[in-house]
Design goal:
Blueprint: H1 2-10, H2 13-21, H3 24-37, H4 42-66, H5 70-77, H6 79-93, H7 96-112, H8 118-166, H9 183-194, H10 202-217, H11 223-252, H12 263-278, H13 283-316, H14 328-347, H15 351-376, H16 390-415
Helix pairs in contact: 2-8, 2-10, 2-11, 2-13, 3-11, 3-12, 4-9, 4-10, 4-11, 4-15, 4-16, 5-6, 5-15, 6-13, 6-15, 7-8, 7-12, 7-13, 7-14, 8-11, 8-13, 8-14, 10-13, 11-12, 12-13, 13-14, 15-16
Keywords: Membrane, Transmembrane, Transmembrane helix
Protein name: NRAMP family protein
């Protein structure tokens, strides 16, 4: 028990990564994968988590060895690398964050039966989360998300075990398994792999949290401790993806259920269908799990984008023009909240197009960012004793090839 408590106390960037990654990619994409294509989708989920692992690990490794953010590593590689990452961050700042808050606001309205508009629900969420981030900063974020992810993990574990206990739902008469390797199936597969466990640019987010953890602990964290803690978070992320897949497969596969393309409607469908399958008693458990998933994702993404944006501004400016302030983080959090609420207010009908733009940038830059992360931990200035071993480097090269193939094919489908 003492070892378990000590382990939970050590959790930091890894648990934040898990909290951030289990949003739409898990709740929507993993569940939909199981519901539409069945158990075969275990393979792309496992491969995506495995082949992307080195790129996120390199961010933690670089920061805990150099005591600097991964963005500093990009700057060391050259200004073009820094600006490339900056472009992705700018696009994410007014697309991904707005999309996450829209989904969460929709869940809040549908699950709590609130009689308010989507814009007002989103505004209330922006206010609540901004207040939590500004007042609590990293320490409260870390502590609160340990609780949220723990509740989510055990709630999903219970639902998954109940689903296995009840068994596979009976397929409808005349059901024919859909083909994965046609244009629709390939596009879904690309989306699943691209956002599983999350986009590669989030490696910079994990690096920022690692810096905050070092400040909190006074730099008294060894590289082995930091990597072990991150690995725990990464494993939790991967397991939760399989939980969602299993639930979707056991409760929906073979039923010919028409699942909505809207993340808000889809999430409401999932809660309703799970309740019908498991019983009305499960509504509260499913609702809490869904809300905890999206609320925690909004918190971590909002916090990370604020930190990364500030770091990019600092690294992009000349030393004499850098004007750090103790209120900078608060201003950036509020600025992102106002910007994204405006995006929701003005462009909610076109949110799909905005997210598609962010998806395009994420896919195109994913293999480049993977290569950049590898370069930061293998460059001559990085201590040789802490460089990744040959197995990890080999896995990263395989991941770069894997992501490049998906990116090129995705661009081909978008153009032709």
């Amino acid at each position: 028990m003492n070892q378990l408590l000590r382990l939970i106390k050590q959790l930091g960037p890894g648990i934040l990564f898990a909290s951030m990654a289990i949003g739409t990619s898990h709740l929507v994409l993993s569940t939909k994968a199981g519901a539409q294509y069945g158990w075969i989708m275990i393979l792309p989920i496992v491969f995506a988590n495995l082949l992307k692992y080195p790129f996120f690990e390199f961010g933690v490794r670089y920061t805990n060895v150099t005591k600097k953010t991964l963005i500093s590593g990009y700057l060391d590689l050259g200004k073009p690398f820094l600006y490339g990452y900056g472009i992705i961050t700018i696009v994410s700042c007014f697309t991904i964050l707005a999309a996450l808050y829209v989904v969460t606001a929709g869940l809040l309205i549908n699950l709590l039966k609130l009689d308010i508009s989507l814009n007002l629900a989103a505004l209330l969420l922006f206010f609540a989360i901004s207040l939590l981030l500004i007042i609590g900063r990293y320490k409260v974020l870390e502590q609160s998300l340990k609780l949220v992810v723990s509740i989510l993990f055990f709630a999903l574990l219970i639902v998954t075990l109940m689903a296995f206990g009840k068994g596979q739902v009976a397929p409808t008469h005349g059901f024919t398994a859909p083909t994965l390797f046609n244009e629709i199936g390939i596009l879904f597969l690309i989306g699943l792999v691209g956002w599983m466990p999350t986009a590669v640019e989030a490696s910079g987010w994990v690096s920022m949290w690692s810096v905050e953890k070092l400040k909190l602990k006074g730099s008294k964290i060894s590289i082995n401790e930091a990597l072990r803690e991150f690995n725990i978070g990464y494993v939790i992320t991967s397991i939760l993806a399989l939980f969602f897949l299993a639930i979707g497969c056991l409760t929906l596969y073979g039923t010919n259920t028409d699942l909505s393309g809207s993340a808000v409607i889809f999430a409401d469908q999932i809660v309703t269908l799970f309740t019908q399958y498991l019983g009305n008693w499960a509504y509260g458990l499913i609702a809490i799990s869904a809300l905890a998933t999206m609320f925690s994702t909004c918190m971590t993404a909002h916090d990370a984008l604020a930190r990364v944006s500030l770091d990019l501004l600092e690294k992009s400016s000349t030393p004499q023009n850098r004007t750090a302030s103790k209120y900078s983080f608060a201003f950036m959090v509020l600025g992102l909240a106002l910007l994204n609420w405006f995006v929701i207010y003005q462009f909610s009908a076109n949110m799909g197009n905005l997210v598609a733009l962010a998806t395009f940038f994420s896919f195109v830059f994913a293999p480049i960012l993977g290569w950049m992360n590898l370069k930061t931990v293998t460059q001559p200035t990085f201590p040789k004793a802490y460089r990744p071993n040959n197995l990890l480097k080999g896995l990263s090269y395989l991941g770069i090839v894997f992501l490049s193939a998906f990116s090129l094919y995705y661009c081909y489908l978008m153009v032709f």
